[in-house]
Design a protein that fits this description.
The protein has 805 residues and is α+β, with helices and mostly antiparallel strands. It contains 29 helices and 30 strands. The two termini are 35 Å apart. Belongs to the cation transport ATPase (P-type) (TC 3.A.3) family. Type IB subfamily.
């Protein structure tokens, strides 16, 4: 994203099908200053990249409104203190209205409150409070202690659709009763004479048509006003034709003694079935974001902080950086920070996937939303709000669920021209039946016309891709795989080559002491004591590994009289009166220490990929120590799993060929690229791509970032650096190489699911339209089939949430 480019996400209400999303997307892309706009029908939102010097969010809202839809904004009420006159209220109002993300702010001096409409993807309530405070006043959320007051738009929509459906069904059931009695096989069913009365049917059908069905008329009007068409146009056309033709026949029946065949039930039942489909669809779409809800549920609502020696329980969004947070046993850690007091074991499984609690003491990092198991901790907050690890994970999942995969472009192109074509086919069907098949039989032609219009609604087509992306990326997040966007989710299924960085990816990235060989006759405990005391003075990772390994044997430290680090050779020191040398063969030769008797041992250890150091005490050889970066416990199984999936696996490293070969043999990697400089990793990836391979690069360090960005798909180990994760397309938050196979597996499953959805969505229309046109599908059956098509597509996508690895 360029310096002059900004990204914003807005919620959109009023969309009824993919054609709506396509129209809004086209409209937003035409706004001057907009670089890219993506509208997601399933999530009911738009993600817009734009130049803030040219346009702003207000213009997007106006554009969406002009297109006949509305932007769903958050609204919060704040209590304001410190105001003394109208000038105070005016100042606060102006200040809030200038904030990016605030659409409208009203400050009332008499009530001492402010009502603010804002876009929560750009600004939070905490930011609004901070602005008021910066102006010299104080603010707090109204009823902040009465629980979560945030409005769930999806829940409101479900409740609204449910109420409409119940009302519509109550009025439509008598009409359905009449209709069923008309079939020859059900002609025995008793129907009260009252229900056979055309005027009674008119009374029942009218509220359904114009009160319940008002949403279709409004949607159709807005669509046509903007020179386009959507599902509302099809429904409004079909039901209106049936209703008004029935009304015409009812008026003609005045004074007539015989019964008249009416079509009030056609329009009413159609509207009722469509509402039922919308209700099921809304509930299913709500389930598709379960992953986000689960992640958000991990966050505690409040935090216990220490301020000026006093313990305060405050809402989580009021915790600031450097606040001291108190965490009691059994409680969740509310923010990311550093332990400043206490010892405990912390369950980090919800973030890292590791089931064994991790010991924490002073200086250790703590992750928000993890559970403090058995000790009392004081933690200094380092990352709060949107900066915490959990918030970043939620953001990545939300971005992925809201993004478009390239495969969706086909559906967008089809839905953009679909409705006008369907209207044309329906009109042609009507004329064919009215003029040629059954000349002059208007009711028969009208039935076919309505059936074609209704069966062809492109809702399923619009839901096919985004619901699968939502469910697939959500399930992936649950198993520790974060896709940064739908395009990466799609690309991953084509990968045929995996390039693994060695250190920190295949191996643990931390050297450990593996071997200590003590010369016969030398006091083992004394040697351990001298080594640990001397190496304790060095900060080199190898030295730290030696100290840790030796002290685990119960060694105590002695006084160090002198210490010198000899770069490239090792160290020399005087410990408790003993002269000590630890280092390379060159260091021993320099001090004329004889060690030829152990050369075979040294060569054997080095051939096993270990770093070997000789130890001399008082100028005499005393022993050999070796350290090595060990292979991760699950690396071998994970790599074999990748190979069984038909993938070629490469390991890339800066280490020498002997060490690289040893590691590759341990984990059964067939291809090794060794002695590669950090700057050369990206070049090696390019070479593989030039050979026609689709490459996924997996790494964890800063030096892996260029290669991660160069690869077709970059995968960052989540236990690595922020830079690597920023450059990657996928983050494997558990640091387990099995997550690579999981990512590819979920990608393949999701793309397969999308293709299934697209096939069935198109098949419904390809098969249904001719059947309806030939007269084999009654309008009410067409309505049921159309509703079922949308629900079935969403339910098929939801199967991804139950995928077993």
């Amino acid at each position: 994203m360029s310096v002059k480019e900004k990204e914003v996400q807005i919620q959109i209400g009023g969309m009824t099908c993919a054609a709506c999303a396509n129209r809004i997307e086209k409209g937003l892309n035409k706004v001057e200053g907009v670089n890219e706009a993506n509208v997601n029908f399933a999530l009911e939102n738009a993600k817009i990249k734009f130049n803030p010097e040219v346009t702003n969010v207000g213009e997007f809202q106006v554009k969406v409104k002009n297109l006949g839809y509305n932007v769903e904004l958050d609204k919060s009420d704040f209590m304001i203190t410190g105001m003394t006159c109208a000038a105070c209220a005016n100042r606060i109002e102006k200040g809030l209205n200038k904030l990016n993300g605030v659409t409208k702010a009203n400050v009332n001096l008499a009530l001492e409150n402010a009502t603010v409409e804002y876009n929560s993807s750009e600004i939070s309530t905490a930011d609004i409070i901070k602005k008021v405070q910066s102006l010299g006043y104080d603010a707090s959320l109204k009823d902040e202690n009465s629980g979560d007051k945030a409005v769930d738009h999806k829940e409101k929509e479900i409740k609204k659709q449910r109420n409409k459906f119940i009302f519509s069904a109550v009025l439509s059931l008598p009409l359905l009763w009449v209709m069923v009695s008309h079939f020859s096989i059900t002609s025995f069913i008793y129907v009260p004479n009252l229900l056979m009365n055309p005027w009674v049917q008119l009374v029942l059908a009218t509220p359904v048509q114009f009160f319940i069905g008002k949403q279709f008329y409004i949607g159709a009007y807005k669509a046509l006003k903007n020179k386009s068409a959507n599902m509302d146009v099809l429904v409004a056309l079909g039901t209106t034709a049936a209703y008004f033709y029935s009304l015409y026949l009812t008026i003609l029946s005045i004074g007539s003694q015989g019964s008249t065949e009416l079509y009030f039930e056609t329009s009413s039942i159609l509207i009722t079935l469509i509402l039922l489909g919308k209700l099921f669809e809304a509930k299913a779409k709500g389930r598709s974001s379960e992953a986000i809800k689960k992640l958000m549920g991990l966050q505690p609502k409040t935090a216990l902080v220490e301020r000026e020696g006093v313990e305060l329980e405050i809402p989580l969004d009021q915790v600031g950086i450097n606040d001291i947070v108190l965490v009691k046993p059994g409680n969740k850690i509310p923010v990311d920070g550093v332990v400043v007091e206490g010892n405990s074991a912390v369950d980090e499984s919800m973030i890292t996937g590791e089931s064994i609690p991790v010991d924490k003491s002073i200086g250790d990092n703590a992750i928000g939303a993890t559970i403090n198991k058995n000790g009392y901790l004081k933690i200094r907050a380092k990352k709060v709000g949107k900066e915490t690890a959990l918030a970043q994970i939620i953001k990545i999942v939300e971005d992925a669920q809201g993004s478009k995969a390239p495969i969706q472009r086909l559906a967008d192109q089809i839905s953009g021209v679909f409705v006008p074509i369907v209207v044309g086919i329906a009109a042609l069907t009507f004329l064919t039946w009215f003029i040629w098949v059954n000349p002059g039989d208007f009711p028969s032609a009208l039935e076919k016309f309505i059936a074609v219009l209704v069966i062809a609604c492109p809702c399923a087509l619009g839901l096919a891709t985004p619901t699968s992306i939502m469910a697939g990326s959500g399930r992936a997040a649950e198993i520790g795989v974060l896709f940064k966007g739908g395009e990466h989710l799609e690309k991953t299924h084509d990968i045929d080559t995996i390039v693994l960085d060695k250190t920190g990816t295949v191996t643990n990235g931390e050297p450990i002491l593996t071997d200590v060989v003590v010369k016969d006759g030398f006091n083992e405990n004394l040697l351990f004591q001298l080594i640990a005391s001397a190496e304790r003075q060095s900060e080199h990772p190898v030295a730290q590994a030696i100290v840790q390994g030796v002290t685990e044997k119960g060694t105590v430290f002695s006084q160090v009289e002198s210490f010198e680090n000899v770069p490239g050779y090792g160290i020399q020191a005087t410990v408790n009166g003993y002269s000590l040398l630890i280092g390379t063969q060159k260091l021993m030769n320099q001090h004329k220490v004889e060690f030829t008797s152990v050369l075979d041992t040294v060569n054997l250890l080095e051939s096993n990929g270990k770093t070997v150091m000789l130890v001399a005490v008082n100028q005499e050889y005393a022993g050999v120590i070796a350290v090595a970066d060990t292979v991760k416990e699950n690396s071998k199984d994970a790599i074999n799993r990748l190979k069984n999936m038909g993938l070629e696996v490469f390991m890339i490293t800066g280490d020498n060929k002997r060490t690289a070969s040893y590691i590759s043999e341990q984990v059964e990697i067939d291809h090794v690229i060794a002695e590669v400089l950090p700057s050369g990793k990206a070049e090696e990836v390019k070479k593989l791509q030039q050979r026609g391979r689709k490459v996924a690069m997996v790494g964890d360090g800063i030096n892996d970032a260029p290669a991660l960005a160069t690869a077709d798909v970059g995968m960052a180990i989540g236990t690595g650096t922020d830079v690597a994760m920023e450059a990657a397309d996928i983050t494997l938050i558990r640091g387990d190489l099995n997550s690579i196979a999981d990512a590819i597996f979920m990608s393949k499953k999701t793309i397969h699911n999308i293709k299934q959805n697209l096939f069935w969505a198109l098949a419904y229309n390809a098969i249904g339209i001719p059947i309806a046109a030939y007269g084999f599908l009654a309008p009410w059956l067409a309505g049921a089939a159309m509703a079922f098509s949308s629900v079935s597509v969403v339910l098929n996508a939801l199967r991804l949430q139950k995928v077993k690895l």
